[in-house]
Amino acid sequence: MQHFKTLSSYLEYLELPRPEHPMLSVFTAMGEGFLPCPKESSPPITNDCYSISFKKIVKGDLNYGRTKYDFTNGTLFFIAPRQVLQWEDNIVFEQKGFSINFHEDFLKGSELANQIKKYGFFSYSANEALHLSPKEEKQIESIVENIDIEYQNNQDEFSKEIIISQLSTLLKYANRFYERQFLNRKELSNDLLGRFNRQLEVYFDSGKLQENGIPSIEQIAEKLSVSQRYLSDTLKKETGKTSTEHLQLYLIDEAKNILLDPKKTISEVAYELGFEYPPYFSRLFKKKEGISPTEYREKYKMN
């Protein structure tokens, strides 16, 4: 797989104009003019750059990581360094919008260098792109215009600091808008929890639990066609519990049923639930229920 260490080599591969700055490129076409279009297709590639784009793709699929992005107008999407990118020749690029690309080293020494890693949307998948309202579009466009003005000017000792400040503001607004999107998608979030539990039911019923152990959150997320980060963020927002906590609760509920069989030892129950180490199962059960598996079994027998 081809990897591009510099922004210039990455843009050259895409057949896009050379950047004004060795670590930063800004393409805008929100009023007059058109965005330059990258090459028609590409096998899987990686690079060391961040990308923030708006209205770049209106038809076709861009493979990002393990997931296909299916973009429509009005969406803002984010790509992190070293994520695998691939697209086919049936893709159609929108001629309006903007695209900001910057090498991860561009942020070195700034507060944003650490902050940017906390923004989960850089790891989100296709159906998790940020859908902007017209008002939100204007707010984002205003910030991008300021970045573009500074980018096009003769750069001086203040330019980088100002651009990074504007990038930080853009990401803070994006974070706010994602929060709004989470709140406005309660029905979808509830459906996601239902689908999450159904995936666990299918996995348990298939007998894979004893064979392969407890499924990872990444495996479940892949089955649901969402990213691990988005799955946890959405469930946490709507239920107060992360995906890991929901998985643990599901296991505890299953354990309660199995513990009703007095012929099975606590270790056998743990192994049946996919736990490699029975003591870990006992600690988790007590943490969630306040009593040990043995105490739970005794308490049930008394009732």
UniProtKB/TrEMBL annotation:
PROSITE patterns: HTH_ARAC_FAMILY_2. Keywords: DNA-binding, Transcription, Transcription regulation. The keyword Transcription applies. GO terms for molecular function: DNA-binding transcription factor activity; sequence-specific DNA binding. Residues 198-299 form the HTH araC/xylS-type domain. It comes from the Bacteria. The keyword Secreted does not apply. InterPro entries: Homeodomain-like_sf, HTH_AraC, Tscrpt_reg_AraC-type_HTH. SMART domains: HTH_ARAC (SM00342). Gene3D superfamilies: Homeodomain-like. SUPFAM superfamilies: Homeodomain-like. This is AraC family transcriptional regulator. The lineage of its organism: Bacteria, Pseudomonadati, Bacteroidota, Flavobacteriia, Flavobacteriales.
